[in-house]
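tool_call: predict_structure(chain=1)
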Amino acid sequence: MKYTTLPNTNIKVSKICLGTMTWGNQNTQDEGFEQMDYALDQGVNFFDTAELYPVPATAETYAETERIIGNWFKKSGNRDKVVLASKIAGPGDYTAHIRTNGFQPEAIKDAVNKSLERLQTDYIDLYQLHWPERQTNTFDTRDYVHNPNDKWQDNFKEVLHTLDEIVKEGKIRQVGISNEKAWGAMRYLEESKKYNLPRMVTIQNAYSLLNRVFEGDMAEVAMRENIGLLAYSPMAFGVLSGKYIKGTAADNARLKLFPRFKRYSSDSCTEATKQYLKIAEENNISLAQMSLAFVTQQPFVTSNIIGATSMAQLKENINSIHVELDDVILKQIKAVHDIIPNPTA
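tool_result:
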Protein backbone atom coordinates (compact mmCIF):
# COMPACT_ATOMS: atom_id res chain seq x y z
CA MET A 1 0.00 0.00 0.00
CA LYS A 2 1.04 3.59 -0.54
CA TYR A 3 0.37 6.30 2.03
CA THR A 4 0.17 10.05 2.37
CA THR A 5 -1.20 12.41 5.00
CA LEU A 6 -4.37 14.45 5.11
CA PRO A 7 -3.14 17.90 4.00
CA ASN A 8 -1.84 20.15 6.77
CA THR A 9 -2.09 17.32 9.32
CA ASN A 10 0.00 14.42 10.57
CA ILE A 11 -2.82 11.91 9.95
CA LYS A 12 -1.44 9.09 7.78
CA VAL A 13 -3.90 7.66 5.27
CA SER A 14 -3.70 5.03 2.56
CA LYS A 15 -3.90 6.24 -1.03
CA ILE A 16 -6.77 3.79 -1.44
CA CYS A 17 -9.79 4.58 0.74
CA LEU A 18 -12.52 2.03 1.40
CA GLY A 19 -15.91 3.39 0.38
CA THR A 20 -18.94 1.95 2.13
CA MET A 21 -22.13 3.30 0.58
CA THR A 22 -23.46 -0.10 -0.56
CA TRP A 23 -23.43 -1.68 2.90
CA GLY A 24 -26.92 -2.12 4.23
CA ASN A 25 -28.43 -2.24 0.76
CA GLN A 26 -26.44 -4.09 -1.89
CA ASN A 27 -24.21 -5.64 0.78
CA THR A 28 -25.08 -7.32 4.06
CA GLN A 29 -23.39 -6.65 7.38
CA ASP A 30 -21.35 -9.85 7.07
CA GLU A 31 -20.13 -8.76 3.64
CA GLY A 32 -19.21 -5.36 5.02
CA PHE A 33 -17.26 -7.04 7.81
CA GLU A 34 -15.42 -9.18 5.25
CA GLN A 35 -14.53 -6.14 3.17
CA MET A 36 -13.19 -4.22 6.17
CA ASP A 37 -11.17 -7.21 7.39
CA TYR A 38 -9.60 -7.71 3.96
CA ALA A 39 -8.97 -4.01 3.28
CA LEU A 40 -7.26 -3.49 6.63
CA ASP A 41 -5.13 -6.60 6.03
CA GLN A 42 -4.02 -5.09 2.69
CA GLY A 43 -2.93 -1.87 4.36
CA VAL A 44 -6.04 0.21 3.67
CA ASN A 45 -6.41 2.26 6.87
CA PHE A 46 -8.83 4.91 5.56
CA PHE A 47 -12.61 4.23 5.56
CA ASP A 48 -15.22 6.71 4.31
CA THR A 49 -18.91 6.67 5.21
CA ALA A 50 -21.82 9.06 5.79
CA GLU A 51 -24.98 9.29 7.83
CA LEU A 52 -26.89 9.22 4.54
CA TYR A 53 -25.60 5.79 3.49
CA PRO A 54 -26.50 3.38 2.03
CA VAL A 55 -27.36 4.95 -1.32
CA PRO A 56 -30.03 5.30 -2.66
CA ALA A 57 -31.07 7.12 0.50
CA THR A 58 -34.29 5.96 2.08
CA ALA A 59 -35.89 6.35 5.49
CA GLU A 60 -35.91 2.55 5.86
CA THR A 61 -32.14 2.14 5.40
CA TYR A 62 -31.05 5.47 6.89
CA ALA A 63 -27.62 5.29 8.59
CA GLU A 64 -27.40 1.50 8.31
CA THR A 65 -23.88 1.76 6.91
CA GLU A 66 -22.61 3.58 9.99
CA ARG A 67 -24.25 0.95 12.19
CA ILE A 68 -22.45 -1.82 10.31
CA ILE A 69 -19.10 -0.09 10.78
CA GLY A 70 -19.84 0.50 14.45
CA ASN A 71 -20.67 -3.16 14.94
CA TRP A 72 -17.40 -4.12 13.24
CA PHE A 73 -15.43 -1.81 15.53
CA LYS A 74 -17.08 -3.43 18.54
CA LYS A 75 -16.43 -6.95 17.29
CA SER A 76 -12.90 -6.46 15.94
CA GLY A 77 -11.49 -3.85 18.32
CA ASN A 78 -9.84 -2.21 15.32
CA ARG A 79 -11.01 1.39 15.79
CA ASP A 80 -7.46 2.57 16.54
CA LYS A 81 -6.21 1.09 13.23
CA VAL A 82 -8.64 3.07 11.08
CA VAL A 83 -8.77 6.70 9.96
CA LEU A 84 -12.53 7.18 9.87
CA ALA A 85 -14.34 9.73 7.73
CA SER A 86 -18.06 10.48 7.82
CA LYS A 87 -20.41 13.24 6.68
CA ILE A 88 -23.46 15.24 7.62
CA ALA A 89 -26.15 15.13 4.93
CA GLY A 90 -26.87 18.39 3.21
CA PRO A 91 -30.45 19.58 2.74
CA GLY A 92 -32.52 18.12 -0.06
CA ASP A 93 -35.81 16.46 -0.92
CA TYR A 94 -34.34 12.99 -0.49
CA THR A 95 -32.88 13.77 2.95
CA ALA A 96 -36.02 15.17 4.56
CA HIS A 97 -36.23 11.94 6.57
CA ILE A 98 -32.92 12.89 8.24
CA ARG A 99 -33.47 16.56 9.13
CA THR A 100 -34.63 19.77 7.49
CA ASN A 101 -32.54 22.45 9.18
CA GLY A 102 -29.44 22.20 7.01
CA PHE A 103 -26.15 23.10 8.65
CA GLN A 104 -27.57 25.13 11.51
CA PRO A 105 -25.50 24.69 14.70
CA GLU A 106 -27.97 22.35 16.38
CA ALA A 107 -28.20 20.25 13.20
CA ILE A 108 -24.44 19.74 12.96
CA LYS A 109 -24.14 18.85 16.65
CA ASP A 110 -27.06 16.45 16.39
CA ALA A 111 -25.57 14.78 13.32
CA VAL A 112 -22.15 14.30 14.92
CA ASN A 113 -23.58 12.90 18.14
CA LYS A 114 -25.81 10.41 16.33
CA SER A 115 -22.97 9.29 14.04
CA LEU A 116 -20.70 8.73 17.04
CA GLU A 117 -23.36 6.60 18.69
CA ARG A 118 -23.96 4.49 15.58
CA LEU A 119 -20.23 4.14 14.87
CA GLN A 120 -19.58 3.16 18.50
CA THR A 121 -16.62 5.51 18.76
CA ASP A 122 -15.67 8.63 20.70
CA TYR A 123 -14.32 10.53 17.70
CA ILE A 124 -14.41 10.86 13.91
CA ASP A 125 -11.08 11.61 12.25
CA LEU A 126 -12.49 13.55 9.28
CA TYR A 127 -15.97 15.06 9.33
CA GLN A 128 -17.32 16.38 6.05
CA LEU A 129 -20.23 18.49 4.81
CA HIS A 130 -21.83 16.19 2.25
CA TRP A 131 -22.82 18.95 -0.19
CA PRO A 132 -23.52 22.69 -0.18
CA GLU A 133 -26.65 24.15 1.37
CA ARG A 134 -26.89 26.77 -1.35
CA GLN A 135 -28.31 25.88 -4.75
CA THR A 136 -25.60 24.98 -7.20
CA ASN A 137 -24.89 22.46 -9.96
CA THR A 138 -24.15 19.42 -7.84
CA PHE A 139 -25.63 16.36 -9.58
CA ASP A 140 -26.59 15.80 -13.22
CA THR A 141 -26.24 19.52 -14.02
CA ARG A 142 -23.18 20.49 -15.98
CA ASP A 143 -23.24 24.28 -15.67
CA TYR A 144 -24.10 26.68 -12.87
CA VAL A 145 -27.25 28.73 -13.34
CA HIS A 146 -27.87 31.29 -10.64
CA ASN A 147 -31.21 31.21 -8.85
CA PRO A 148 -32.02 34.69 -7.44
CA ASN A 149 -34.75 33.09 -5.33
CA ASP A 150 -32.38 30.78 -3.45
CA LYS A 151 -33.25 31.30 0.22
CA TRP A 152 -29.82 30.27 1.48
CA GLN A 153 -28.03 32.91 3.53
CA ASP A 154 -24.26 33.11 3.88
CA ASN A 155 -23.29 31.02 6.90
CA PHE A 156 -19.72 29.87 6.17
CA LYS A 157 -18.39 31.48 9.34
CA GLU A 158 -21.20 30.09 11.50
CA VAL A 159 -20.64 26.56 10.19
CA LEU A 160 -16.92 26.76 10.95
CA HIS A 161 -17.61 28.14 14.44
CA THR A 162 -19.86 25.17 15.15
CA LEU A 163 -17.27 22.72 13.84
CA ASP A 164 -14.64 24.47 15.96
CA GLU A 165 -16.69 23.80 19.10
CA ILE A 166 -17.00 20.13 18.19
CA VAL A 167 -13.26 19.84 17.45
CA LYS A 168 -12.48 21.36 20.85
CA GLU A 169 -14.80 18.80 22.46
CA GLY A 170 -12.65 16.07 20.90
CA LYS A 171 -15.49 14.57 18.86
CA ILE A 172 -13.92 15.29 15.47
CA ARG A 173 -10.28 15.82 14.53
CA GLN A 174 -10.36 17.41 11.06
CA VAL A 175 -13.01 18.78 8.71
CA GLY A 176 -13.66 18.61 5.00
CA ILE A 177 -16.20 19.38 2.29
CA SER A 178 -17.87 17.29 -0.39
CA ASN A 179 -19.53 18.04 -3.73
CA GLU A 180 -18.29 21.62 -3.34
CA LYS A 181 -17.36 24.16 -5.97
CA ALA A 182 -14.41 26.51 -6.23
CA TRP A 183 -16.28 29.48 -4.74
CA GLY A 184 -17.49 27.53 -1.73
CA ALA A 185 -14.10 25.93 -1.14
CA MET A 186 -12.34 29.30 -1.20
CA ARG A 187 -14.94 30.89 1.10
CA TYR A 188 -14.37 28.18 3.71
CA LEU A 189 -10.60 28.56 3.41
CA GLU A 190 -10.71 32.33 3.68
CA GLU A 191 -13.11 32.30 6.64
CA SER A 192 -10.92 29.82 8.51
CA LYS A 193 -7.84 31.93 7.85
CA LYS A 194 -9.50 35.21 8.81
CA TYR A 195 -11.08 33.99 12.05
CA ASN A 196 -8.63 31.22 13.06
CA LEU A 197 -11.25 28.52 12.63
CA PRO A 198 -10.85 24.87 11.51
CA ARG A 199 -9.47 24.54 8.01
CA MET A 200 -11.07 22.30 5.43
CA VAL A 201 -8.30 19.79 4.67
CA THR A 202 -10.05 17.73 1.98
CA ILE A 203 -12.74 17.93 -0.65
CA GLN A 204 -14.62 14.79 -1.68
CA ASN A 205 -15.85 15.18 -5.25
CA ALA A 206 -16.52 12.86 -8.16
CA TYR A 207 -13.48 12.22 -10.34
CA SER A 208 -12.88 9.59 -13.00
CA LEU A 209 -11.88 9.14 -16.62
CA LEU A 210 -15.48 10.04 -17.51
CA ASN A 211 -15.73 13.02 -15.19
CA ARG A 212 -12.63 15.19 -14.99
CA VAL A 213 -14.37 18.50 -14.31
CA PHE A 214 -12.33 18.77 -11.09
CA GLU A 215 -9.34 19.55 -13.30
CA GLY A 216 -10.81 22.96 -13.99
CA ASP A 217 -10.92 25.57 -11.22
CA MET A 218 -10.93 23.01 -8.41
CA ALA A 219 -7.57 21.48 -9.34
CA GLU A 220 -5.93 24.89 -9.02
CA VAL A 221 -7.60 25.45 -5.67
CA ALA A 222 -6.45 22.02 -4.51
CA MET A 223 -2.84 22.53 -5.55
CA ARG A 224 -2.38 26.15 -4.49
CA GLU A 225 -4.34 25.89 -1.23
CA ASN A 226 -3.23 22.35 -0.34
CA ILE A 227 -6.70 20.90 0.03
CA GLY A 228 -6.68 17.26 -1.04
CA LEU A 229 -9.19 15.57 -3.30
CA LEU A 230 -10.85 12.43 -2.00
CA ALA A 231 -12.00 11.11 -5.35
CA TYR A 232 -15.32 9.27 -5.33
CA SER A 233 -16.95 7.30 -8.15
CA PRO A 234 -13.54 6.64 -9.75
CA MET A 235 -15.18 3.67 -11.51
CA ALA A 236 -18.21 5.72 -12.63
CA PHE A 237 -20.72 3.37 -10.93
CA GLY A 238 -18.87 0.39 -12.38
CA VAL A 239 -19.08 1.59 -15.99
CA LEU A 240 -15.29 1.79 -16.13
CA SER A 241 -14.96 -1.91 -15.43
CA GLY A 242 -16.22 -2.47 -18.98
CA LYS A 243 -18.85 -4.93 -17.73
CA TYR A 244 -21.80 -3.08 -19.26
CA ILE A 245 -20.12 -2.94 -22.66
CA LYS A 246 -19.13 -6.60 -22.49
CA GLY A 247 -22.54 -7.64 -21.20
CA THR A 248 -21.05 -9.31 -18.13
CA ALA A 249 -22.69 -7.15 -15.47
CA ALA A 250 -24.36 -9.20 -12.76
CA ASP A 251 -28.04 -8.79 -11.97
CA ASN A 252 -27.12 -6.91 -8.78
CA ALA A 253 -24.89 -4.43 -10.63
CA ARG A 254 -25.59 -0.88 -9.53
CA LEU A 255 -26.97 0.48 -12.79
CA LYS A 256 -29.22 -2.56 -13.20
CA LEU A 257 -30.66 -2.17 -9.73
CA PHE A 258 -30.87 1.62 -9.82
CA PRO A 259 -31.29 2.80 -13.43
CA ARG A 260 -32.14 6.30 -12.22
CA PHE A 261 -28.39 6.84 -11.72
CA LYS A 262 -28.01 7.44 -15.43
CA ARG A 263 -25.30 10.08 -15.58
CA TYR A 264 -22.68 7.56 -16.71
CA SER A 265 -24.93 5.87 -19.27
CA SER A 266 -25.07 8.40 -22.10
CA ASP A 267 -23.99 7.53 -25.63
CA SER A 268 -20.87 9.66 -25.24
CA CYS A 269 -19.98 7.91 -21.95
CA THR A 270 -20.37 4.55 -23.65
CA GLU A 271 -18.20 5.57 -26.59
CA ALA A 272 -15.49 7.00 -24.35
CA THR A 273 -15.54 3.84 -22.24
CA LYS A 274 -15.12 1.67 -25.34
CA GLN A 275 -12.05 3.67 -26.31
CA TYR A 276 -10.57 3.47 -22.80
CA LEU A 277 -11.23 -0.28 -22.79
CA LYS A 278 -9.28 -0.62 -26.01
CA ILE A 279 -6.31 1.23 -24.46
CA ALA A 280 -6.36 -1.02 -21.43
CA GLU A 281 -6.54 -4.20 -23.48
CA GLU A 282 -3.72 -3.06 -25.76
CA ASN A 283 -1.56 -2.52 -22.68
CA ASN A 284 -2.52 -5.81 -20.98
CA ILE A 285 -4.18 -4.28 -17.94
CA SER A 286 -7.81 -4.31 -16.89
CA LEU A 287 -9.90 -1.23 -17.57
CA ALA A 288 -10.78 -1.11 -13.87
CA GLN A 289 -7.16 -0.96 -12.77
CA MET A 290 -6.23 1.53 -15.49
CA SER A 291 -9.13 3.77 -14.45
CA LEU A 292 -8.22 3.61 -10.77
CA ALA A 293 -4.50 4.05 -11.34
CA PHE A 294 -5.19 7.17 -13.41
CA VAL A 295 -7.07 8.72 -10.50
CA THR A 296 -4.63 7.65 -7.78
CA GLN A 297 -1.57 9.13 -9.44
CA GLN A 298 -3.00 12.62 -9.96
CA PRO A 299 -1.02 15.16 -7.89
CA PHE A 300 -4.13 16.72 -6.34
CA VAL A 301 -5.58 13.38 -5.16
CA THR A 302 -5.04 12.56 -1.49
CA SER A 303 -6.94 9.26 -1.62
CA ASN A 304 -8.99 7.29 -4.13
CA ILE A 305 -12.31 6.06 -2.70
CA ILE A 306 -13.08 2.61 -4.07
CA GLY A 307 -16.28 0.69 -3.54
CA ALA A 308 -17.18 -2.92 -4.26
CA THR A 309 -20.13 -5.26 -3.95
CA SER A 310 -18.02 -8.44 -4.25
CA MET A 311 -14.69 -9.55 -2.86
CA ALA A 312 -13.36 -10.09 -6.38
CA GLN A 313 -14.05 -6.45 -7.20
CA LEU A 314 -12.51 -5.31 -3.92
CA LYS A 315 -9.31 -7.28 -4.50
CA GLU A 316 -8.90 -5.96 -8.04
CA ASN A 317 -9.57 -2.38 -6.92
CA ILE A 318 -7.09 -2.48 -4.05
CA ASN A 319 -4.46 -4.10 -6.27
CA SER A 320 -4.67 -1.10 -8.60
CA ILE A 321 -2.29 0.61 -6.17
CA HIS A 322 0.50 -1.41 -7.79
CA VAL A 323 -0.30 -0.12 -11.31
CA GLU A 324 1.64 2.91 -12.55
CA LEU A 325 0.55 4.36 -15.90
CA ASP A 326 3.45 5.38 -18.11
CA ASP A 327 3.61 8.33 -20.49
CA VAL A 328 2.51 6.21 -23.45
CA ILE A 329 -0.74 5.19 -21.76
CA LEU A 330 -1.33 8.69 -20.43
CA LYS A 331 -0.97 10.10 -23.96
CA GLN A 332 -3.48 7.56 -25.24
CA ILE A 333 -5.90 8.52 -22.48
CA LYS A 334 -5.40 12.20 -23.30
CA ALA A 335 -6.23 11.57 -26.95
CA VAL A 336 -9.62 10.14 -25.97
CA HIS A 337 -10.27 12.91 -23.48
CA ASP A 338 -9.45 15.55 -26.11
CA ILE A 339 -12.17 14.12 -28.36
CA ILE A 340 -14.77 13.23 -25.71
CA PRO A 341 -14.06 15.48 -22.72
CA ASN A 342 -16.13 14.91 -19.57
CA PRO A 343 -19.08 13.09 -21.15
CA THR A 344 -20.76 13.27 -17.77
CA ALA A 345 -20.81 15.91 -15.04
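agent: Strands lie at 3-5, 12-14, 16-19, 46-48, 83-88, 124-129, 172-178, 200-206, 228-232, 301-306. Proceeding to next step.
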